[in-house]
Design brief:
The protein has 208 residues and is α/β, with parallel strands linked by helices. The protein is 28% helix and 18% strand. A seven-stranded mixed beta sheet has the order 3-2-1-4-5-7-6, sandwiched between helices. The structure holds S-adenosylmethionine (SAM).
């Protein structure tokens, strides 16, 4: 399976609407967390088991990973997890009911760095997506970012804070116990980065 796909490639600009929350979750009224670029979905699977008072929705551009991940969710006791196939850059434009109105938090954890300047436009965090989030998220919703690439962190930080409706939170004050990730579960990439003693750059932003 290809490790990186060009999200601007013709095949990946198609999008499939995210189904209505009532169709995918047992209790659609629970707080909702979105994980963008969830890969094989292991992070959300662990979260869905440990935090049954949240709903989790992963969005991933590689279809095969999404199909396989959705086969696993039948093993869960509670129906609080779903994986959607699509390109985060345009998936929200195609979803009938704007899912972002019901979203409490979003994570962009270890997105593809696309190191060359001419490829920056392939990065998942783009001004257009941040503008969509800014127009549709409720006040108080949170965006979480993490990466081991300093230059990518600076780029994401700049793109998010250029939009004046997102305010960076003082990281040390943040209480994870009340968030979508109360036990600080790690993504596969985060486990790898930590085991290699590499640096992690992270921030949290609140919609004001
Ligand atoms: C480096 S992996 C990180 C996976 C996981 N978040 C982690 O921390 O282990 C980045 C993932 O984002 C996905 N991706 C890249 N661009 C995307 C886009 N525009 N929309 C949705 N997923 C995307 C890739 O296919 C890949 O699975």
């Amino acid at each position: 399976m290809r490790q990186h796909v060009n999200p601007l490639g013709k095949n990946f600009l198609r999008s499939f609407p995210i189904p209505a929350l009532e169709e995918i979750f047992e209790n659609p009224r629970l707080p909702l967390h979105l994980d963008i670029g969830c890969a094989a979905g292991d992070f959300l699977f662990d979260l869905a088991i440990s935090s049954t008072n949240w709903n989790y929705l992963g969005i991933e551009i590689r279809e095969k990973l999404v199909v396989n991940a959705n086969l696993k969710i039948t093993k869960l006791e509670k129906k609080n997890l779903f994986y959607a196939y699509g390109n985060a850059s345009n998936i929200f434009d195609h979803s009938k009911k704007n899912i972002l109105n019901f979203t409490n938090s979003i994570s962009f954890y270890f997105p593809d760095p696309w190191f060359k300047k001419k490829h920056y436009k392939r990065r998942v965090i783009q001004p257009k997506l941040i503008n969509t989030l800014s127009n549709s998220l409720k006040r108080g919703s949170l965006i979480f970012i993490k990466t081991d690439v300093r230059e990518l962190y600076d780029y994401m930080e700049f793109t998010i804070t250029e939009d004046k409706s997102f305010k960076k939170l003082p990281y040390s004050d943040f209480l994870y116990s009340d968030s979508f990730n109360p036990y600080k579960t790690q993504t596969p990439r985060e486990k790898y980065v930590k085991s290699n003693e590499l640096m992690i750059f992270e921030s949290i932003y609140r919609k004001i």
